[in-house]
Every structure is written in C-alpha cells, then in structure tokens.
C-alpha cells in the first residue's frame, strides 16, 4: 500500500519533469531555428555597429544612408532598457511585419518590413527567441534625427498606403516546393528586392520592375532577372549557387559592396538546399531589359597587350592611364588583366566580369575607392582601398581605362567630380598633400 501511495505521488512529478524536458528541448530547437532565420534575414547587417566586438552584436548603431539623412539601426539585443528584452511577442511581431514600434511609432522603411510582412508569425517569434537567448547590449545606439518634415514619423502612414502590402506570403500550389521555398527566402527573409528592385517616386519598391536593378547611391545593385544582357540570363543554376556561397564565379563575377556583406554575413551560411531554392526562384522571375546593356555584362573586354610597348616611351607612359593600371592594378590582376591564380584565393580577371562590363561604372569606381573585403568560411578575400593613394582625377582616369580596355566602353564616362562625390559619400580619405599643397 505504501508503495502504491509513493508511486501515485511520484507520477505527477515525473510527468512534470517530462513536460519540462520537452519544453526545454522545444525551446532549444526554436532558438536554433531562430538563429538560422536571423542569418537568412541578415539582421546583423543593420543592427550591429561597424567594428563592434562580438559581445555587442545586435546592439544597433549601424548608419544607413538615405536620401533624407542617416538612419541608425536600433538595439534589438535582449537588454530590457535599450533592446527588446521586455517586448511582448505581439509587439515584436508588429515591429517586424507591420513597421510599428513598441510605443506605436511608425518605423522608417529602412527596416524592410515591406518584405518582412511576408514572414510567418512562427518564424518571427523564432528570431525573437534567438535574440533573447543572447547577452544583452546595455547601450543606446546613435539616435536617428532627420530634418523636417522627414522626422515626422506619422507621415510613414501615407507612405504605407502607397507602398505597403501587408500579409504573409502564401505558397503557390502550382509551383514546386523548391520554388516556393526560394520565393519565401528571396521575397521575405533575405529581402533581396530591397536593393535589387528600382524605387518609385515615393521611394517604395517598383514591383512592376522587380529585381531589375536598384540605385544605392555610390553603388548599383545589379539587375538579377533572367534577361540575357541586363540580368543573369546566361548564368546556370550552379553559377548562382556558387556565387551566393563564395562570392565568386570565375569568368563572371566577384562580389563587392553591399552584396559582399550579404554573402559574408548571411548567404554563405545557408544550406545548399536553400541556395538552390533561391536560384530556382530567381531564374523564374520575369526578365527586365535595359537598353544600356547591349550584351551580357560578363562578355565584355579583352586582354591588354600594350603595357610593355607603352614602357618604351617612358615619359608618355608615366602620364598615361595604362601607367596607373601598371603601378596600381597589374601586380594582382596581371599585366593583361586576366587575373592571377586559380581557385578561391585567385585574383579575378578584369574582362569577362560583370562589374567592368556594366554600362554604369559606379561599382568599379567604388571598388577602386573603397576596396573589397569578404570574411568567408574558406578564408579572407581582400583588395586594398586606393582612396589615400590616388586623386579623384587619377581614379577617374583609371576607371575609364578599365572600362574601355576590359569592360563596356559605355561605362567610361566617370569624371573627377563624380569620384569626389562618391569619395565624400563614403567618407573616404584623400591622398596626403605634398609640400606645394597639391595631392600626390
């Protein structure tokens, strides 16, 4: 009898312990899933300050340039004072999917809630669970302070009326699981259209030209539709997967700028299945043409053969664009521009490259000015900045030479004034001045 009584008393405890274990296991799975989703959504890109230490991740402070001023990423760490530590599930979901803050304030669309609205509630809450599992960052990031009238957040209600289609993305039963997964990743989580879709007059995404290329100021987010000249219509499925995974496809492209950051922080960490799903969906969207691109961007240019001949005339060579190329570029990209080496650490060819083959040469100029740096799982990819070595006139001259020799000659229109504007926008240094006051 005593044994039965004891067993009867222990059974509820055992059930409670089992339920607790199930909850803990479920919570651990939710956090793990949330970590993957936060990576796919590249949350750290806007919510972690440049150069922030590991323990300050998601503490906010990343400056996002906009036509109306700088917008700073908010603290979304688990800190209860400055972060989301005391936010309810509904408050967090409303911010992510509806663009409304904890206090009811309208959020600026620098937060891509026009894409995140397509996410499921379950996925948003998994991201929240992951963020709350991390140490909080007890610090207030820089405050967004736009000039009037853009500091009137209530005005975003009118912006939403024109540009915000609220609602979770539904699967298309006529399409494959792979296609539907790719659409969810591209249109919702990875919010690819935020950069790659042009903007309308109200600065909303022009979805009639989805993925037809976006203007990022000093950078261009290239057309990624299947158009064979303006887009990626001549890329294979494997080309796309390789590019998203490594940031490089020999004879086609290597990532720089915001795309390099997206690959570094997000895309390289996705499963091969998800990368294939992204490629499947992107290759199916309507093609958008661009009259400026008369042939595929990766089919322009040819090797240089005149560098050694130019050296025979030392005086002329010292003042020529080919001299700038020889002294600043040839060591890594080769005298012919064909690149040096093979595999992951190879220096890319300058011809048959989507950056030099673009009719708009802003990305080429920005790479010369700011360099390239990708922290990849296979190692580091780096090109130095030439901002502190070359003047605006020299960079304009060099970029014109590269466009004419290795890319689309239509891109050889950049001027020193254009370079100066881009240098200022990126807050990059000038070469040091010599004794007579001129720049080197």
From TrEMBL:
Domain of life the protein comes from: Bacteria
Domain Cytochrome c: 29-135, 177-286, 316-406
Subcellular location field: Cell membrane
Keywords annotated in UniProt: Cell membrane, Electron transport, Heme, Iron, Membrane, Metal-binding, Repeat, Signal, Transport
UniProt keyword Manganese, yes or no: no
Gene3D superfamilies xrefs: Cytochrome c-like domain (1.10.760.10)
Chief place where the protein resides: membrane
Extent of the signal sequence: 1-21
Name of this chain's protein: Gluconate 2-dehydrogenase
């Amino acid at each position: 009898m005593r044994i039965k009584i004891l067993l009867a008393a222990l059974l509820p405890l055992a059930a409670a312990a089992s339920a607790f274990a199930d909850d803990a296991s479920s919570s651990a799975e939710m956090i793990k899933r949330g970590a993957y989703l936060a990576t796919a959504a590249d949350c750290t890109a806007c919510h972690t300050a440049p150069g922030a230490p590991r323990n300050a991740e998601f503490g906010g402070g990343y400056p996002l340039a906009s036509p109306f001023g700088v917008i700073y990423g908010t603290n979304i760490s688990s800190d209860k004072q400055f972060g989301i530590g005391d936010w309810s599930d509904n408050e967090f979901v409303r911010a992510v999917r509806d663009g409304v803050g904890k206090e009811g304030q309208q959020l600026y669309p620098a937060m891509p809630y026009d894409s995140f609205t397509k996410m499921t509630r379950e996925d948003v809450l998994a991201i929240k669970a992951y963020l709350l599992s991390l140490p909080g960052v007890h610090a207030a990031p820089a405050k967004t302070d736009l000039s009037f009238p853009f500091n009137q957040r209530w005005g975003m209600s009118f912006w939403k009326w024109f540009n915000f289609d609220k609602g979770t993305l539904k699967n298309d039963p006529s399409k494959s699981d792979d296609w539907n997964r790719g659409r969810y990743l591209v249109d919702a989580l990875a919010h690819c259209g935020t950069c790659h879709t042009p903007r309308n007059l109200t600065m909303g995404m022009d979805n009639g030209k989805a993925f037809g290329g976006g203007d990022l100021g000093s950078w261009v987010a290239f057309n990624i539709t299947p158009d064979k000249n303006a887009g990626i219509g001549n890329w294979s499925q494997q080309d796309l997967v390789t590019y998203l995974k490594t940031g490089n496809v020999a004879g086609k492209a290597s990532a720089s700028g915001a795309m390099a950051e997206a690959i570094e922080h997000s895309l390289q960490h996705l499963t091969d299945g998800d990368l294939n799903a992204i490629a499947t969906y992107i290759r199916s969207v309507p093609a958008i043409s661009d009259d400026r691109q008369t042939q595929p961007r990766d089919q322009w240019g040819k090797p240089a053969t005149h560098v050694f001949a130019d050296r025979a005339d030392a005086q002329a060579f010292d003042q020529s664009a080919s001299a700038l190329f020889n002294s600043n570029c040839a060591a890594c990209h080769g005298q012919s521009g064909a690149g040096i080496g093979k595999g992951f650490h190879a220096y890319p060819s300058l011809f048959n490259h989507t950056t030099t083959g673009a009719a708009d040469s802003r990305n080429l100029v920005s790479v010369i000015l700011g360099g390239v740096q990708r922290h990849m799982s296979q190692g580091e990819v780096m090109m130095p900045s030439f901002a502190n070595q070359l003047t605006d006139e020299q960079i304009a001259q060099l970029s014109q030479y590269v466009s004419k020799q290795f890319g689309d000659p239509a891109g050889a229109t950049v001027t020193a004034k254009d370079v100066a504007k881009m240098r200022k926008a990126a807050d990059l240094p000038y070469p040091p001045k010599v004794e007579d006051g001129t720049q080197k």
